[in-house]
Design goal:
The chain is of the alpha+beta class. Helices cover 43% and strands 21% of the residues. The radius of gyration is 28 Å and the shape is elongated.
């Protein structure tokens, strides 16, 4: 449960988690809570939220080791008019924002980035950074981190929505509807500067894919044949050759197979 001081601080503006809620359609709840007309949800008994809080420190420890750079943790960015940000951390030297998440083991980084896209863009918009780090613990056996790029088109639309909602909060005007920016599909969200592409309509890809499947059985048979030939080479043999095929053994006892070079007659 938030203390009165924490609640008053949060009601001074709109933060990254507010952006997430607003963009998924909960803007009326945010409006009422900021106006003091409704109590914010009590997250004390939400297991996923509490696990995320409990694992945040170790998550950031892993990120520090991965980046080779110290992190400043639990950072409150100076409020810009009504835009607020409380970061899990930022890099000490470059001041790049960091967000730490915990999710279930079967989830994907693409899905986490998509779900939290408004929050991540909010933080980059507020800090003026062109990218930020997203560090995620999946269950209890996998940890990953990626770089998320700033999406300026999305940020401009996000800022307009936040400005309108904050004006409604200040004036007591109930917002009727919001023109929410569409979060790009997870395949189009850049992770480490790269996206996924569907090549199903590319003619050359289609042709090569057919050849790939046609030749796959031959490739498997070819590998099996190479292994069978190597198995014929006795342990005391450093080189075996015949019918254009040569197998050699190096000092590490590794066998290499190749075609015998043909000499010009």
């Amino acid at each position: 449960m938030l203390t009165i001081k924490e609640r008053n601080e949060r009601n001074k503006g709109l933060g990254g988690s507010d952006s997430n809620r607003i963009m998924r359609g909960d803007w009326l709840d945010v409006y009422k809570e900021k106006r003091g007309e409704a109590e914010p949800a009590n997250l004390d008994h939400m297991l996923n939220v509490q696990i995320g809080i409990a694992t945040e420190s170790v998550n950031l420890d892993f990120l520090e080791r991965e980046l080779g750079e110290s992190l400043i943790r639990d950072v409150t960015v100076d409020t810009d008019n009504y835009i607020m940000s409380h970061l899990d951390g930022m890099t000490a030297d470059t001041k790049v924002p960091v967000e730490a998440k915990h999710t279930y083991e079967g989830n994907t980084m693409e899905a986490v980035a998509e779900t939290n896209y408004p929050q991540l863009q909010h933080y980059m918009m507020h800090t003026g950074k062109t990218y930020m780090h997203l560090a995620v613990i999946f269950g209890n056996r996998r940890w990953e981190q990626v770089v998320i790029d700033a999406d300026y088109t999305y940020q401009q639309k996000l800022e307009k929505v936040l400005a309108y909602l904050w004006d409604c909060i200040q004036t007591g005007t109930t917002p009727i509807s919001l023109d929410l920016p569409i979060t790009p599909p997870k395949e189009d969200i850049k992770l480490n500067g790269m996206v996924k592409k569907d090549m199903s309509d590319t003619r050359e890809w289609i042709d090569l894919a057919k050849e790939f499947y046609n030749y796959k059985p031959m490739a498997k048979h070819f590998d099996e044949c190479k292994k069978a030939i190597k198995d014929l080479v006795s342990d005391d043999c450093r080189e075996a050759r015949g019918n254009g095929v040569v197998v050699t053994r190096n000092k590490k006892n590794i066998l290499t197979i190749k075609e015998e070079k043909k000499t010009d007659e």
